[in-house]
């Protein structure tokens, strides 16, 4: 008990400087500015879910005799699966793999492969990305330990539709919606005004410290990827980053927990969707497959490399590139034998900047496809209706 208390004190002190920095920034703001932030964060959503929340992990551990109808997908949405590999062979990897050391050293062939991946797949894996494997493992292990805590410890961080920050079990506020077979934890890294360590779990004892370092490393990686994505569009390296708000970007994390599912052929861990933000840097479970990517008319089950990240293009980059780059539908399947944990890091535009096709990519023969819209306005769709394929970004294509 004394050791645990010492660890908590140490973690608190190690983050104290960052907390003070955030407090100073808040204290220097006017009441009007604080109210603006509060209004932006609310997005018109309430503090309560429309129905009582049921934790999927609790359902999975309750030895169900019948499968709950609220998780049964319509026949057209059900995954066509019979068995799922738990330890995929390297030869089965089927989305492009990009070596970032080669890419950032100026290898033109690697740049071409990345461009093709963004245009044709919307997904790619990155190796030699610079994030320490030990840090990645510590982050994933910490979250596995969190989800194995008693339910009472996790409920202390229960979230609401207002910001989604905290421990959750559903996306969207539609009453009576068919739900996904997953729980999650959502937290903010940037802007610093939204980064609140009190909303991060305190157990296991080092999780805040580990995730703080993890977040900083992925923000760096996101910036490096944005530069090469911009260059490959024929733009200045900093163009996409500037369109996101320069250094004033958004960054957040959703840790996905997919419990064992007694009827995996009827359910999904996460319904088909394209990510509403900028780019997503996913740290998947390399021992239990689950991510499926739509490629043409086929759902491809991705087999991840150990300590690689899976990167995908989000709707905001598709809009900025005037559909030169594609955000692609993806979903998550579940299985009856293994649980999965994955960490999805979202690198997003500043929430109040209008996002529209970049002028350099608009011509008389390639007019702008999308009207301007802020990310705050855009992501309200998925926060109210939940994941619904590509319907949101497609619905905003201009009629002209």
UniProtKB/TrEMBL annotation:
Which reaction is recorded as catalysed by this protein?
jasmonate + 2-oxoglutarate + O2 = (1R,2R)-12-hydroxyjasmonate + succinate + CO2
- Similarity section: Belongs to the iron/ascorbate-dependent oxidoreductase family.
- Domain Fe2OG dioxygenase as annotated: residue spans: 248-349
* Key words of the record: Dioxygenase, Iron, Jasmonic acid signaling pathway, Metal-binding, Oxidoreductase, Plant defense
Q: What is this protein called?
A: Jasmonate-induced oxygenase 1
One protein family per Pfam: DIOX_N
Query: Per the entry, which co-factors are needed?
Result: L-ascorbate; Fe(2+)
**Gene Ontology molecular function terms on file:** dioxygenase activity; jasmonic acid hydrolase; metal ion binding
């Amino acid at each position: 008990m004394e050791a645990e208390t010492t660890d908590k004190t140490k973690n608190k002190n190690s983050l104290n400087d960052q907390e003070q920095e955030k407090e100073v920034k808040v204290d220097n703001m006017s009441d009007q500015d604080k109210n603006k932030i509060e209004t932006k964060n609310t997005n018109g959503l309430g503090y309560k879910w429309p129905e009582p929340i049921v934790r999927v992990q609790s359902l999975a551990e309750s030895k169900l005799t019948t499968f709950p109808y609220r998780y049964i997908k319509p026949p057209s949405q059900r995954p066509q699966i019979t068995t799922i590999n738990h330890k995929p062979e390297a030869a089965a990897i089927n989305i492009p793999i990009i070596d970032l050391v080669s890419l950032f050293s100026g290898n033109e062939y690697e740049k071409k492969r990345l461009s093709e991946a963004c245009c044709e797949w919307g997904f790619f894996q990155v190796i030699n990305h610079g994030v320490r494997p030990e840090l990645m493992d510590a982050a994933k292990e910490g979250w596995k330990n969190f989800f194995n805590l008693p339910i009472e410890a996790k409920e202390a961080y229960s979230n609401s539709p207002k910001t989604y920050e905290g421990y959750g079990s559903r996306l969207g506020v539609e009453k009576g919606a068919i739900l996904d077979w997953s729980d999650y934890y959502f937290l903010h890294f940037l802007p610093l005004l939204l980064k609140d360590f009190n909303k991060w779990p305190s157990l296991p004892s080092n999780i805040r410290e580990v995730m703080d370092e993890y977040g900083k490393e992925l923000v760096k990686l996101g910036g490096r990827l944005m530069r090469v994505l911009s260059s490959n569009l024929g733009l200045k390296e900093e163009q996409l980053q500037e369109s996101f708000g320069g250094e004033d970007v958004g960054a957040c994390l959703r840790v996905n927990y997919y419990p064992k599912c007694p009827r995996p052929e009827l359910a999904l861990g996460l319904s088909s969707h394209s990510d509403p933000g900028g780019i997503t840097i996913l740290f998947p479970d390399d021992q239990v497959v689950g991510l499926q990517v739509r490629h043409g008319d086929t759902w491809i089950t991705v087999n991840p490399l150990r300590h690689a990240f899976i990167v995908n293009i989000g709707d905001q980059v598709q809009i900025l590139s005037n559909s030169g780059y594609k955000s692609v539908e993806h979903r998550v399947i579940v299985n009856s034998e293994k649980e999965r944990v994955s960490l999805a890091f979202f690198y997003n535009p500043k929430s109040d900047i209008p996002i529209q096709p970049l002028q350099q990519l608009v011509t008389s023969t390639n007019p702008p496809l999308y009207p301007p819209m802020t990310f705050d306005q855009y992501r309200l769709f998925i926060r109210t209706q939940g994941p619904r394929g590509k319907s949101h970004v497609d619905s905003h294509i201009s009629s002209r």
